[in-house]
Amino acid sequence: MSQKTYLSMIARENMENMQYKIVNVHDANGIKLRVAAGAGVLGVLDNKPKSGENATVVVAGLTRCFAGATITAGSFITVTASGTATAVASGQYMLGKAITGCASGSHFQLLIQHNGYRG
Predict the structure, then answer these.
(1) Which of 80, 75, 82 lies closest to 96 in space, CA to CA?
(2) Angstrom distance (rounded) from CA 88 to CA 102
């Protein structure tokens, strides 16, 4: 059985079409879609909130994630500018590890570990 750690935040933009995308802290208790490729992030959005509604964010454990490129099982994952996942490159933040692989535009299983920046 996989355990997840969730945070309850407030969506600071309409996120109805952003479920399973990668998000980050925007302001006090608020989140927005991640906009800086390879930068540090908070976690993966687990629901579909409108602006001002409760947003559930998975910050640790196994979750679904939306791929912005082909993902290979076992690869470390970072974020694209559009909040999707891609394989990490040197100097980028490693959100976690892909447990399954998939094609771009599909969902895969991501183990969120917050591994820091890749050297």
Answers:
(1) 75
(2) 15
Rounded CA separation 67/115 (Å): 19
User: Please, are residues 69 and 104 in contact by the beta-carbon 8 Å criterion?
Assistant: yes
Per-residue confidence of the chain (119 residues) as pLDDT tens digits?
468 999 999 999 999 999 999 999 999 999 999 878 999 999 999 999 999 999 999 999 999 999 999 999 999 999 999 999 999 999 999 999 999 999 999 999 999 999 999 97
What is the C-alpha separation between 100 and 73, in angstroms, rounded? 4
Q: How far apart are CA 11 and CA 17, in angstroms?
A: 12
pTM score: 0.95
85 has which bridge partners?
67, 79
Give the residue from 27, 26, 116 showing the smallest Cα distance to 78: 116
Q: Which of 76, 50, 61 is nearest to 7 (CA)?
A: 61
What letter does residue 16 receive in the DSSP assignment? T
